[in-house]
Amino acid sequence: MTPRTLFEKVWDAHIVHRLPEGPVLLYVDLHLVHEVTSPQAFGGLRRAKRRVRRPDLTLATVDHNVPTGDRALPIDDPVSARQLEALSANAGEFGIELFDLRSPNQGIVHVIGPELGATQPGMVIVCGDSHTSTHGAFGALAFGIGTSEVEHVLATQCLVMSQPRTFEAHFSGRLAPGVTAKDLILGFIGRIGTAGATGHVIEYTGDVIRGFSMEERMTVCNMSIEAGARAGMVAPDETTFTYLAGRPRAPAGAAWTRAVETWRQLRSDPGAAYDTRVSIDASTLAPQVTWGTSPGMVTDVTGRVPDLAQFQTEAERSAVRRALAYMDLAPGTPLAGLRIDRVFLGSCTNARIEDLRAAARVVRGKRVAPTVHAMVVPGSQQVKVQAEREGLDRLFREAGFEWRNAGCSMCLGMNADVLRSGERCASTSNRNFEGRQGRGGRTHLMSPAMAAAAAVAGCIVDVRGWELADLPQPLELAS
Amino acid sequence: MEPFVRHSGKAVALPRDNVDTDQIIPKQFLKGVERTGLGPALFYDWRYGPDGTPNPDFELNRSSAQGASILITGANFGCGSSREHAAWALEDAGFRAILAPSFADIFFANCCQNGLLPVRLLPQEIDELFRRVQAVGDDYALTIDLEAQGVEDGHGFRTQFGIDSYRREMLLRGLDEIGRTLLEESRIAAFERRRAIGTPGPVS
Question: Is the Cβ pair B31, A145 closer than 8 Å?
Fold first, then answer.
């Protein structure tokens, strides 16, 4: 039998039917739904008098458009409130489980899937959100879709898809202290470009990835879309199984034993061929900071804003000119020392418990610079509770951070959490597009530790060499 | 979905690479529950100043761009967020086709779902079209024929483009994809029975 990649194994196992025109009908095991990209899909079902085929394989939450302040208060924005009400009504009408603002399980859809154990190896997972690639960290094939396709999956539990190409991103060596999964993925995107993996599913391999925790693998897979890829995947292993064991939606008892046995087969066969391969020595990576308006416009924290002469084509030079004008940066400016106004610790990329711990170790016993407004937005209410159990909330508050409720918040600024025009932000999110965090706002993407250090220093700063504090002992054992 | 067979119309150029969907339609317009009426939000932050006045420098605000139904643009158009609102806004603003050297995957699929034809041409062909739009100014028109998979301007520019046969067929006939998939109901049900018996774990 021809050796197959991890992706090909999962793909093949979900083919319902090969359509005569070429694409396949692909079965979906888990469909995650949120308030922003679903109302039109439910509306379409209603108009066509169609039902949801598998409400039991569909899970909804509210995240993009929710306030992160006091949950006891009504939502200020009536338009946002209506969108949340629409999801509630749709979930009720079509029999879909919903984690709403009152639920202890509410949170960013890509944080709660894994923490519930709903995200499992070998699954096909879709959601009307491009960062669905996050779930690939478990060896699932997970990708974002548009609203028409959301409606298609609701009605049929399938998608019509042409087979993507395969891409191996191999990371050898070891990360230096102070260099994180975020730096690895930003460095990778900087190298291959934001369209470098278009039409592909990336499999991340190598010792560095094997050594990563699930949180770190999720950070890497999350940003696959920023390299243009449909999805990112990591073959499941003991780290994956240990993470999933005992989670509420994970199999239990004999079913667990059988599942793990199956999941162990989910790895690329020796000799399996990829359409594209890139190999990176991770030891060479430094903490990364973006300087422009696309995640590929990134360099080492010790680097400078590039000169136009470094770019080959007029198209590139014109994009860089535009980006630098928007970012109010001159070529040659060192990134370290650049003053910032805001810090955002949050998003589906970097708002899991390990991310908050990494930031807390930088912040403990220090103060946010007086010129900086900093906030922590946990990825889920479960992450928030866990962090509070560990005393991280107090530590952040004492340092001068705001401590919020879970949501997408200032990653995309759909709620009230936005940058004002001209404000410069150190952000742990995934996109530094023009206006993304607020019209006229200037985003610099970086790791949680780097963003925490920037909050304290009041400027972009190399976190390497900073002394990291021990964290307080948890008040009780984590459940 | 409205079928796309052949379309002739005015073309406008937006010569930029990596135009992301946050630019095509900014987040403040994603709060609604309908897919219609999003045309005025198209490229909002590029089109209007912070005070709401039109930005005269933006390509789509020029008088020569008014009434355009074909957008010619740079590589990796539609990257970033999966928001289908980007395709809805383009369609609502009167666009029927987008020509670019490459598109982001999710955006490409979203266009096809809405009868908005994404056409991949070679980078040098797009550059040639940019030159022609600039030279001709007002009323540079193109004809896009999906049946023949061709683009031409009637003044010497003529080329072919590729598109997978499934997408082409769906667009030509304006088919409802869900309706088509539901014809495979028995296969889907059989797949579910097979998975339920044979496979532990993922699908129970």
Answer: no
Residues of B in contact with A311 (CB under 8 A): none
CB pairs under 8 A between A and B: 201
Confidence (pLDDT) at A475: 56
A62-96 pLDDT, tens per residue? 999 999 999 988 898 999 999 999 999 999 999 99
Query: Rounded to a whole number, what is the distance in Å from the CA of B144 to chain A's nearest CA?
Result: 22
Percent of chain A, pLDDT > 90? 95
Please judge whether A48 and B113 are an interchain contact, meaning their C-beta atoms are less than 8 angstroms apart. no
Q: Find all residues with CB under 8 Å of A353, minimum gap 6, and list them.
A: A215, A383, A386, A387, A390
In the stretch 10-29 of chain A, residues with CB closer than 8 A to chain B read: 13, 16-17, 19, 21-23, 25, 27, 29
Contact criterion met (CB below 8 Å) for B93 and B34: no
Q: A320-342 pLDDT, tens per residue?
A: 999 999 999 999 999 999 999 99
N-terminal to C-terminal alpha carbon distance within chain A: 44
- pLDDT of A282 above 90: yes
Q: Does A306 touch chain B (CB under 8 A)?
A: no
Nearest to B23 among A228, A255, A434 (CB): A434
- Select from B175, B38, B44, B34 the least CA-distant residue to B113: B175
pTM of the shown model: 0.97
DSSP-based helix, strand, coil % in chain A, nearest 5: 35, 20, 45
Q: Are B178 and A50 an interchain contact pair (Cβ–Cβ within 8 Å)? A: yes
- The ipTM estimated for the assembled molecules is 0.96
Q: Do A436 and B22 touch (CB under 8 A)?
A: yes
Number of other residues whose CB lies within 10 A of the CB of residue B57: 8
Are B114 and B142 spatial neighbours (Cβ–Cβ below 8 Å)? no
Percent residues over pLDDT 70 in chain A: 99
CB A162 within 8 A of CB A22: yes
